[in-house]
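Consider a concrete sample entry:
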Amino acid sequence: MTKTPVVLTIAGSDPYGGAGIQVDAKTIHALGGYALSVPTALTSQNSQGVLEVFAPPVAVLENQLCALLDDMQVDAVKIGMLVNAEIVVSVAKLIDRYALRNVVLDTVLVSSSGKDLLATDALEVLKAELFPRADVITPNLPELNRLLNTDYQGLAEEMDEIGEQLWRMNVKAAVIKGGHSSTDSCTDYVLQPASKPEALFAARVQTTHTHGTGCVLSSALATALAKGNRLSDSTYIAKAFLTATLKASDSLKLSYHQLSDNRREPIL
């Protein structure tokens, strides 16, 4: 490319620095892009999980987005935590207004600590407003099963059926993440309507540094798309980056006040 690819992340703010717009920006820059970021929520969280979520007025969100999009050409968009229906509708409206492309929707619904990150009444709005506008969605298995009201296990033989259900919901493409599967490996699947499911294998990495894995993958995917790569190639690049980062994550040494078996540490 003759210019630096620009990726806009629209997601929650994580003061712990391991997820949300903070780790999105780290990932985008690590992969050679330039990150723009607008927070959908201010959170109180640490290695033990999300404690509180506050969504600023939607007008503030829109003003920030318009200020950026009126000024800069954006090559890809990563969307994460959206909190409520009003924010979902606002983001959908701006996707149309600015004809945004390479939109990656990370379907963030619940934190690992059990905190709801999308209001229950916003789930159907998310499906109706953003599924048709996103170029790809990236649910993990718990999110997928909540979206479809199913109990899939992340097995290869389930993927054709999963795809058919997603296409009926106007999903254009999906990356089904396998980190929560019951298998020995972390196998992700790229689903596209005109193609057979494509499996991307990786061995599990044993580490406490698992905070923000979904954010890293989706923002890495958006960056690869911003560079002009196809979806399959972009997913391969994103998964390779995530796996390499997980393998190196134990080099990050942080000090905590108390010992805890529940700690989830940042990756980057």
Observations:
- The mean pLDDT is 95.
